[in-house]
Amino acid sequence: MTQTQINLTDTPRTEYNGWSDWTTWNCALWIGGDQGFYNMAKDCKSYGEFTEYVTEVYMAKTPDGAKWLEADFAEMQEMMDDL
Q1: 12 falls in which pLDDT band (50, 70, 90)?
Q2: 20-52: per-residue pLDDT in tens?
Q3: CA torsion 29→38→42→53, rounded to 10°?
Q4: 62: exposed, middle or buried (C-beta count within 10 Å: 0-12, 13-18, 19+)?
Q5: What is the 3-state secondary structure (H, E, C) of the chain?
Q6: Cα 48–44–17 angle (5° rounding)?
Q7: CA 81 → CA 7, 8, 13, 43, 65, distances in Å?
Q8: CB-based burial of residue 69 (10 Å sphere; 0-12 exposed, 13-18 middle, 19+ buried)?
Q9: Percent of the chain whose pLDDT exceeds 70
Q10: How many angstroms from the chain centroid is the CA of residue 69?
């Protein structure tokens, strides 16, 4: 099974690299490490606004298969506030 095949609705939440779970870590990784996602995130006022835009215009998942809407919103909002 590849990482993209286990998307996380049925996966128990366990801490992953300091984030609440793999999905949250992966979404944060893409926002922080990809210039396009980073610029989109900086233009948004909240993680909710970012997810609305990115899922309608671009894609529902990160290139690794993590669903933007399954990430921990509070944790992602905190990361967005630091951008």
Answers
A1: low
A2: 999 999 999 999 999 999 999 999 999 999 999
A3: -90
A4: buried
A5: CCHHHCCCCCCCCCCECCECCHHHHHHHHHHHHCHHHHHHHHHCCCHHHHHHHHHHHHCCECCCCCEHHHCCHHHHHHHHHCC
A6: 65
A7: 26, 25, 24, 12, 24
A8: middle
A9: 83
A10: 7
Tokens of 30: 């893409």
- Write down the pLDDT at residue 15: 83
Please give the single-letter amino acid code of residue 69: L
Judged by phi (left if over 0) then psi (alpha if -120 to 50, else beta), residue 80 lies in: alpha
